[in-house]
Amino acid sequence: MTRPLVLVHGLWDTPRLFHRLINTLGSRCGPLLAPHLPHRFGAVPLRQLARDLDGHIQDRFGSDTPIDVFGFSMGGVVSRIWLQDFNGAARTRRFFSIGSPQNGTLAAQWIPRRLLAGAADMKVNSVLMRDLKRSSVKLRQVECRSYFCRWDLMVFPYWTTRLPYGSSRMIDVWSHQQLIAHPRALAVFCEDLVSSDCH
């Protein structure tokens, strides 16, 4: 039986974002959980979203079931907070971070925190980013994989997507959204998700 896979959407997205990926996977990897994490256009702090994510995971899989986690864009940062701050790393085998500003993004630098706290959390050198960097050793026990697009205008420079551990791979697409929608990207993710490590 395959491990459960948790799919975490990003800013301005909903779980519908993953329909193409889920359809491409078919029955090859499951069960799946794709919770809706309302972010109010970026106003909700990312730690609150990670707390909400923890509640969904606990409700669906309990506190001990081993899982894999797949986060797109801001969802990858929310997933990382869950891994590092909510003991998620202890039960997670693999973490797939797709086009996520794991070291912040310059696109968020001028966002006012008092209005959009969650979006401002993604600033380069924000308090959240510094905290995640300090506690990143917790990711050592997880197989981490970072994916990026060289021409991403939402998360730039593109090398800010890299997690402190694990592999990093460029996906040959032209935009941030194509990272989760283009057939070329979906083929890469499906191949990695259903590899022998998925069992």
Can you tell me the overall shape? globular
* Count of individual domains: 1
- The helix/strand series, from N terminus to C terminus, equals EHEHEHEHHEEHH
Radius of gyration: 15 Å
User: Strand order within the widest sheet?
Assistant: 2-1-3-4-5-6
Total beta strand runs:
6
User: Which blocks of ≥5 consecutive residues have pLDDT under 50?
Assistant: none
| CATH domain topology | Rossmann fold
Walk me through this protein's architecture.
The chain starts with a strand and ends in a 6-residue tail after the last helix. It has 199 residues and is of the alpha/beta class. Helix 1 (19-25) crosses helix 7 and helix 2 packs across helix 3 (74-85). Strands 2-1-3-4-5-6 form a six-stranded parallel sheet. Helix 3 links the parallel strand 3 (67-72) and strand 4 (92-98). It is globular, with a radius of gyration of 15 Å. The protein is built from seven helices and six strands. It has a single domain, classed as 3-Layer(aba) Sandwich (Rossmann fold), CATH 3.40.50.
